Amino acid sequence: MVNLSIFMNYCLAQKKNKGFIQHQLRRSGAGFTLIEILVVMGVLSILFSIIVIVIDPAKQFGRANNAQRRSDIVAILNAIGAYTADNKGVLPTGITTTVATITDAVNGANICALLVPKYIPSLPTDPSLKTNDITACTNYNTGYTVVKDANNRVTLAAPNQENNEVISITR
Q1: Residues 76, 87: Cα–Cα separation, whole Å
Q2: Which of 145, 126, 123 lies closest to 134, judged by CA?
Q3: 88: left (phi > 0), else alpha (psi -120 to 50), else beta?
Q4: What's phi and psi for 170, nearest 5 deg?
Q5: What is the helix, strand, coil percentage profile of the chain, to 5?
Q6: Pair type for strands 100-103 and 154-157
Q7: Which backbone phi and psi does 93 adopt, to 5 degrees?
Q8: Which has the closest alpha carbon to 170: 152, 160, 161?
Q9: pTM for this one?
Q10: Helix (H) or strand (E) holding 166
Q11: Which of 38-42, 72-76, 159-163 bottoms out in mean pLDDT, i.e. has the lowest?
């Protein structure tokens, strides 16, 4: 019987210790209070707002689109230059002294069939149109404008530019 009473005393002591330990954990502040969590969330939201304002995603996308427009214009001008070189200085027939969009529409500069695929694999389109580059020269619109001056210098422009940039190249 001695062993049973020792065992019972041991169990009671463990039960008291367990309650004591749990009580101490609650009293010692082992967690975060609601106020602390709210303060941290407030600070993080302010930092996130500052970062978003500094980065300005819309402006970054606009810059990327404008870089694509510059690249597209250079590619089209290179194709026009190669066509002109192969044809003894004669520009493609769709380019006139009136500003026109490179398209197959009635008043457009229809130069696709003269350039694609011999001088350029496909005509690039303005990023704002959200269309694929043009390989079939029917029912197309690049979104870029072309005009020649009295000296046969060709100017290509992107009228849909973003961030108030002027995107125009003359050769």
Answers
A1: 16
A2: 123
A3: left
A4: -120, 135
A5: 50, 10, 40
A6: unpaired
A7: -65, -20
A8: 152
A9: 0.70
A10: none
A11: 159-163
